[in-house]
């Protein structure tokens, strides 16, 4: 296995002088050198062939001892210096101080096909930032991160990627439901890949300590490597940088809203500076459409990170980033302007996204109302978001009569759709039909467009849980099945038709299938 190592983060930025792997506060440094823990008996479960290709690993090398050694953390790749990053963050709206890579270890950066990728192991042992944690990850959360990050990419949502999923062979003690019942679970390691894993929290760390020198170095590094189009750093460029991050963050969140993804832990340490979905913890997918839903049991009470609040939280997190970058600019107004613009851009981008879900090409006055009326209808009775939009593409212009039948499969309790509720739905369909008549596209053309933005298959929590249950028994076939299916989430795949279905009743009450704790 021959990789073109092209380290930049640990070459250009300052390291922690302390080389001991002891838990501590780290000052004046971007990262600490640390070696992965040697796993007891690593075993490869799955690889992403596409990511292998992206970083320059031939498919014949995947089964080699070298691959197993490097991506399980058993052995260091030659001439590399792994490290854990220092960052801080706001968690659930509160300042949490120093956090850092508590169980992620960055191995190296690789250059391939003119692209540079940072390669990171999650669950490879403790670091100076592990605080009270053990630095490890269990199989269930690793399967979820592995499958979802690749699935999100194929849905067209900006995201970090995954190269491999391994068993470590170690046992990890966890209290999965946070109810005092601890048990040993299988340990696992995911190799994650992204251009960079820098988060809002990396900037917040230095700003909070008034370490302007490192704040500037980090910002300049980020602009140079990831926003080179902005040019040489200056006050003006820092403002443009913030604007670019705001735009990317907004774009990412609009995609989440489109596919019904709920991140679950939008803390500022989980916000990528590249606007990529990062840190797949207790995330989930909307089954019944519900603005108020969150998958995270820790957030059960306040529902800060509920589906409908994600765009606002994006703004709140950007405000924290603005506060951090302020020290480089010394002027609040440009940041305020950008944050105000985010709100306006959001309204417009959201409406455009909804138009695309409904198959509307043109902007027309009244579209906002059409969308809001639809949202009201979706809330009348539990309605599966994914199935609803997918089936709506079967609507034929002018055929209003009985058209609710088309989407019937999306209702969890179809018998509830009667009387006033049925009337409301029928009114909406009449409005939708009127609106469609203003469009030029034929039914068939519209269907093709709608099916390109409304996925047929998403990684519902119960599907991931079935794969996890099998994996815990040493069966990995379902992981591969879901992985293959989710490569083409917008295509009709007759082979996988059974996954185009509502969440089964048993899944409502089974751990891991509806809400999840942060335990991982
Ligand atoms: P998360 O909510 O998963 O994004 O984690 C928040 C912080 O806790 C990050 O700094 C993580 O690195 C750290 N963390 C989470 N789980 C562990 C663990 N098992 N061991 C060490 N640190 C952890
Ligand atoms: Mg995190």
UniProtKB/TrEMBL annotation:
The EC category is transferase
* Residues given in the record as Mg(2+) binding sites: 270, 279
Binding locations of ATP: 100, 102-103, 122, 134-135, 192, 199, 279
Reaction catalyzed: L-seryl-[protein] + UTP = O-(5'-uridylyl)-L-seryl-[protein] + diphosphate; L-histidyl-[protein] + UTP = N(tele)-(5'-uridylyl)-L-histidyl-[protein] + diphosphate; L-seryl-[protein] + ATP = 3-O-(5'-adenylyl)-L-seryl-[protein] + diphosphate; L-threonyl-[protein] + ATP = 3-O-(5'-adenylyl)-L-threonyl-[protein] + diphosphate
Q: What InterPro entries does the record point to?
A: SelO
Keyword Metal-binding part of the UniProt annotation: yes
Q: Which cofactor does it need?
A: Mg(2+); Mn(2+)
Record keyword DNA repair present: no
| Enzyme Commission number | 2.7.7.-, 2.7.7.108
Which residues are annotated as active site?
269
Record family assignment: Belongs to the SELO family.
Q: State the protein's name.
A: Protein nucleotidyltransferase YdiU
What phylogenetic lineage does the species belong to?
Bacteria, Pseudomonadati, Bacteroidota, Flavobacteriia, Flavobacteriales
Q: Which gene encodes it?
A: ydiU
